[in-house]
Amino acid sequence: MSAPVATQTLIEVRDLNVHFAINASFKARVTGRGGATVKAVDGVSFDLHEGEVLGLVGESGSGKTTLGRALLGLVRPTSGSVKLRGEELVGLPERDLRPKRRHLQMVFQDPHASLNPGMTLQTALAHPLQIHKLTSGDAETQAKVRETLELVGLFPTQRFSDSFPSDLSGGQKQRAAIARAIITGPDLVVADEPVSMLDMSVRAKILDLMIDLKERIGLTYVYVTHDLASAKFFCDRVAIMYLGRIVEIGTVDEIFNEPKHPYTQALIRAIPEPDPDKALPRDLPRGEIPDAARPPLGCSFHPRCPKAFNICGWEARDLQTMLESRWMDLGEDRYGEERPLVGDFSKLKSTEHDAFLPAGSGKDPGELLALLEKIRAEEPDEPMWTGVKEMHAEAHGVRVTFEPGIDPPLYETGGAKAACLLYKPD
Amino acid sequence: MADPVLSLRDLRIWYGAERGAVRAVDGVSLDLMPGETVGLVGESGCGKSTLGRGVLGLLPEGAGHAGEVSFKGRNLLDIKQRELRSMRGPELGMIFQEPMTRLNPLMRISDHFEEVLQIHEPKIGKKEARNRSMEALRGMGIPPTRYKQYPHEFSGGMRQRIMIALALVLRPAVVVADEPTTALDVLVEAQILRILADLRRNFDTALLLITHNLGIVAEACDRVAVMYAGRVVEQGPAYDVTTKPSHPYSRELLRSTISLSTTELHSIPGAPPDLVSPPPACRFHPRCPNAMAVCAQQWPPTEATSPGRRSECWLHATDRIPVGLEQPLQREALAASEEA
Amino acid sequence: MTATTSVTGAPDTPPTTGPPKRRGGILSKIAAPYKQSHGVQRFMLVTGTAVSLIIVLLAIFAPLIAPFSFDTYQADGARFPTQGEPSDVNPWGTTVQGFDVMSRTIYGARTALEVLILAVVFSLAIGVPLGLISGYVGGWLDRIMVLIMDALFAFPYLLLAIVAAFLLTNTIDSGIVVTAIAITVVYVPQYFRVVRASTLSAREATYIEAARAMGAKPSTIIRKYLFGNVVQSVPVIATLNAADAILTLAGLGFLGLGIQPSEAAEWGYDLQRAIADAGAGIWWTALYPGLGIVLAVTALTLVGEGLNDVLNPTLRRRRIKRPVISSSAVGPASAPTTEREAG
Ligand SMILES: Nc1ncnc2c1ncn2[C@@H]1O[C@H](COP(=O)(O)OP(=O)(O)OP(=O)(O)O)[C@@H](O)[C@H]1O
Ligand SMILES: Nc1ncnc2c1ncn2[C@@H]1O[C@H](COP(=O)(O)OP(=O)(O)OP(=O)(O)O)[C@@H](O)[C@H]1O
Ligand code: SF4
Ligand code: SF4
Ligand SMILES: [Mg+2]
Ligand SMILES: [Mg+2]
């Protein structure tokens, strides 16, 4: 869509962190130390201008929903700052936050679960008005509810105001949820995958409605999705998230026409295209999205990045991944030959940038070193080798020293900003 | 040309409900060739899952069926439950949508595979079972070093691929995959689709891929069947149907799909009908932009619009429309009659 | 009301138009389980309800129905015989103390009903809010509450009631209210557990978070969003607990705790007094109060189990007939397409 008009900043997010403790032991919970944490949102900063639609796009578990909820104070940020028109929201007690909720609203992913099954739409929509005391008297409340129902296309309002969620189709429920979100006249609506659970044939209608509302009552949206195609259509700017970080942020044109980050490039290539004539060639990033509790060193995309190079943060785990994927491709015979040379992966030790790979029991570390050298010769294109500074045999195994990695911040690229070392200024 | 491995003839599956029979599948005829991937698309509630399960005889108690599902010369609908159960696995496989619930959390991946192999091929040796399993896993991109791990140690996408490997290790002739990638991300989805595409090259497995994403159909299927309100309204080669849909429903569905090249939103008015009392004659007529008077009164004929393609629509049999019924359907008039 | 299926109205209106579905009032809600049930369930429900209703009517109209009061030992100046056989004056005979058995049995229903109503009201009033708050607030409060409730729950329930009744009778007073409180102590943990469990799952529902996002206070969320969705499991346990409470009440009476014989007629107490009679061939003193207990417990259990079967979806059996597919009612079969046929 059109480029954003330079207007006032509505929301200013600086270095926002939301960490969750997981598997915390009793002691860890009491002392508040130890135990693993998931950095669901990890140092995110951006500005949101009035009247703008910002897309948050990323794979499952990348922290999109958590970021959206943190903007509204539905989840407590660990640190950082969220300012609504210059007013700090982080750290406000729940009581002071509640009146602010009028200006910040949310539409949830699952329309079937987001409405109270025991309330008619009339009651459900009237409640926010009552909470914030926006109307005086029942007649005014009722009129406002009717007006809002009409605004979201649920008419005849007479019929819908008395119906229960179970009487409605998925699309209608989502309209009702949108009505509830806009009835207090909010400035910002965070829409968390508002169409992903709806049928293709309904999605367009709901997106249409959201566009229409934006123009009619001047909304600003944060649109959370993992569907790049709808983001391209609906958003002004898009932020691509990976493991709690924004790895690329820019206007829709920049992101879709000239994606800078290798991850964004991969995502765009992976979208299935209904028109086979337009289908793009596929080269998918290998591997899986890593465990959020133990993110990779350096650039967290490096284990999957086809363009990764020496300073991207290579480490011991990459050695294991490399061997495993090699064995997967080679077949049973070579696997049977090579596997015994390598010891138990759980004994793979690593410090910052140096790994100790144990040799198989009764095997000479020299043989293991020879295997690694052979692999390096056979697969010179494997990006990991760019980061291997040195390998030498020690007692019981091989020590591999890696180039120290750099954790990239968002760099200027001339288009979108991207957190990739390819754009690191010298 | 080879014979189909599986062919449906006038298959009907109706659920019993308090309000009357739900005609979830209502007169479907479809063939599956060996090694072919057929996509089954349509809006929610059109009977796709019912059809997929019906093919494998996995239907709830209160479902009635009629018609024919012939597989290797036998009608699966006549076979006893017990025998059907023993065919599931070695002959007929199913991949479900939610991978977490289908793997036993207390069993290693290796145990899952060895158990399945031992049940259906009792004579298989331990070594052979291991090799077969690892081979299947390897094909799905699961490294052999992880063979001994537990389900919770894998990501959602990996678990789904393990499920696929598990369904394929017995090399069934027919596999039904019910929205195997809906719960997954674009990247994992793309990986799985690529794997499924490799599959049809390497094995002779026929795959019925249920989805509501037309992008997936265009990329991963040989043929596609478009389902609306319990009927297959159009079927044909995936390329042809996704580039030049001949049924108004396929066309509208395709137009309402949001893709990277979307510049204008489009949607189909209305919603799929209640299958207890679907609209008379063409079931799409209340929503069809091309509807004619005849569409509300007489069943549209099924026409071959080009080689290998069928479309159930009056637009392809204009010469047979009774005189006076060619004019556009007056929708208000129809609604009044519907209320009566 | 527009009845068109074109794009007027909400664009995704399902084509099924018609008058909006109305939720009926309380009456139709009560009637729903009876309408939805079939066969055995329905039989259980209807019988249980009928017997319970009869007992309730007896209890309410006891002064009109019973020939005498529960503590009457004489009529027209003549003392009743003790352990007298059924006769014209005392149709079900008299007890060892010379009371009329029929009157005491009918008044026993009144006592049982009074205690039941009080006990159920008390346990609901305590158990449901505690369960809601504990489940919604969570944290330390929840852990402490669960600990206390589990400790109470782990106690043998009759023993608990005895201890409570004993303590209360010695410190406060005896009588119906005290007995009801003793029984309440037993059943609060059950309501607490059930309500807390459903609160815990409802708390995670998106509509609760939506209410929070709306700016609602925790107390409002509990009242307007949780309560209605959580109490649905309560009627079933309330009826089942009521059946159980009759037994507890009888047990207490049997042990001579709780209600004193001069205050009200109580089946358990009467049974205890009749024990000695049984050996002497005097059957009427034990039979009628015993029958009262059995009937009341059975009736309430039938209602409870019947409700459970109907309301609990996991137990609900689909009694829907397999549809008959007649080809006259259906459209033509679509023709298959294979390359073979087409080519
Ligand atoms: N309440 C919580 N407690 C602990 N961890 C959490 C909690 N909520 C989210 N997480 C973790 O934070 C990470 C980000 O989750 P989030 O739901 O924000 O992802 P998402 O991008 O919205 O994913 P999806 O596309 O699946 O909705 C995940 O690893 C998740 O497991
Ligand atoms: N066990 C059942 N009993 C009664 N009706 C059922 C049952 N299962 C499904 N239906 C009904 O049958 C119709 C078809 O359902 P089905 O699940 O096959 O649709 P679908 O095309 O797979 O939809 P989706 O895309 O949502 O998975 C629906 O109207 C549904 O409500
Ligand atoms: S910094 Fe850039 S090149 Fe390096 S791994 Fe990350 S995305 Fe790839
Ligand atoms: S038969 Fe008529 S109503 Fe049905 S799809 Fe064809 S044109 Fe539309
Ligand atoms: Mg999310
Ligand atoms: Mg389905």
UniProtKB/TrEMBL annotation, chain A:
InterPro entries linked to this entry: AAA+_ATPase, ABC_transp_ATP-bind, ABC_transporter-like_ATP-bd, ABC_transporter-like_CS, Oligopep_ABC_C, P-loop_NTPase
Pfam short name (any one): oligo_HPY
Keywords: ATP-binding, Nucleotide-binding, Transport
Top-rank taxon: Bacteria
GO MF terms held by the record: ATP binding
Domain (ABC transporter): residue spans on this chain: 13-268
Keyword hit for DNA-binding: no
Gene3D superfamilies per record: P-loop containing nucleotide triphosphate hydrolases
Signal peptide, first to last residue: none
Similarity field: Belongs to the ABC transporter superfamily.
Protein name in the entry: ATP-binding cassette domain-containing protein
Organism: Solirubrobacter deserti
Automatic annotation (TrEMBL), chain B:
Keywords: ATP-binding, Cell membrane, Membrane, Nucleotide-binding, Transport
Domain ABC transporter, first and last residues per copy: 8-254
SUPFAM superfamilies linked to this entry: P-loop containing nucleoside triphosphate hydrolases (SSF52540)
GO molecular-function terms, A-Z: ATP binding
Subcellular locations according to the entry: Cell membrane
A Pfam family that the UniProt record links to this protein: ABC_tran
Bilayer topology: Peripheral membrane protein
Family note: Belongs to the ABC transporter superfamily.
Name of the protein in question: ABC transporter ATP-binding protein
Organism of this sequence: Solirubrobacter deserti
UniProtKB/TrEMBL annotation, chain C:
Superkingdom, natural source: Bacteria
Coiled coil: none
InterPro entries assigned: BP-dependent_transpt_permease, MetI-like, MetI-like_sf, OppC_N
Renumbered residue ranges of the record's region Disordered: 1-24
Residue ranges of the TM segments: 43-66, 115-137, 144-168, 174-192, 282-303
Keyword check for Cell membrane: yes
Family statement drawn from the similarity comment of this UniProt entry: Belongs to the binding-protein-dependent transport system permease family.
Name of the molecule in the record: ABC transporter permease
Species annotation: Solirubrobacter deserti
Lineage: Bacteria, Bacillati, Actinomycetota, Thermoleophilia, Solirubrobacterales
